[in-house]
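Step 1: inspect the first sequence and its tokens.
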Amino acid sequence: MFDFVKTVLIALPKGFYTTFKHLFKKPVTLQYPKEKMPMAPRYRGLHYLEKYEDGSERCVCCGLCASACPADAIYMEPAENEKGERYSEVYEINLLRCIYCGFCEEACPEEAIFLGHEYEFSNDSRDAFIYTKGQMLANRPTKEKPFKKIIRKVRRIF
């Protein structure tokens, strides 16, 4: 008898209160493909490579990002151009192995690689998750990452 009274007199009004409290609030649902939730400024998503203002790529294929990667997801092969400057002939990131820790971004002395805010990169083929240099150069965002300027200022001090 006590369980019935406890259920009817306490639990039911409490449940109704919760229901009515949320019934008249504005819904928080986003219409996903049309509306996207803004990502946090420090969110680490899909990688992209930076270029200098003249259009040449920043990566000199020093290998520090590959050695800093705990998942061993970065593969690169160096080459030299006619001026004797190094660049990466092959630069690949295995997105299936990558844990998006950002160590590659921190290790790069040229500030060539960054993790962007892109989070939609599903595919039905495993080969599509080997992200090449051409894809990373094309993935550069139009809006600059807010912490990029801070990172560059701090590195120039030291």
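Step 2: inspect the second sequence and its tokens, then contrast the two.
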Amino acid sequence: MSSDDQPPHAAKPTLLFRALPSPNPLSAADRRALRAFAEQLTTEVAAGHAFLCLVTDDRELQRLNRTFLQHDYPTDVLSFPLASPNGGLGEIAISIERAAAQAAEFGHNLLDELRILMLHGLLHLTGLDHERDRGRMAQAERKWRHHFALPEGLIARSRRTAGAKA
């Protein structure tokens, strides 16, 4: 998107935290950091277009995955693009349980994994699709991951894992 596409009064992203495991793995500081990251994504990646991000449990992600994609299992992140007249891009849903497992598996903290998932989901909301775009999303994810000093992203991890299985 160009700067001409930016809405005159950019909306703020909305983060919802629902059905989190007990004890809650996110501190108040973590939540503030995620909100600040969502605002950075809105400004820097989405040209001022806001989005909604739900951070929830595996059960809810499995329900959403089954309902909308006919896949009956939990997943880490889902994106629901929405062309909105108010400039909103759509909604992202993230499983905190998948995020925690992936953070442990790849050796970084939960907050960084949530940021990786949020970035990945937002790139889908901007119209990129790593399964069909001949590497454009992978390139964008790499660029923004470097910009935000994030660990290896989803596309790079899946390619590395696929290469190890071949």
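Step 3: confirm your contrast with the notes below.
The longest strand covers residues 90-95. The helical segments are 28-45, 58-69, 96-106, 110-125, 136-147, 154-165.
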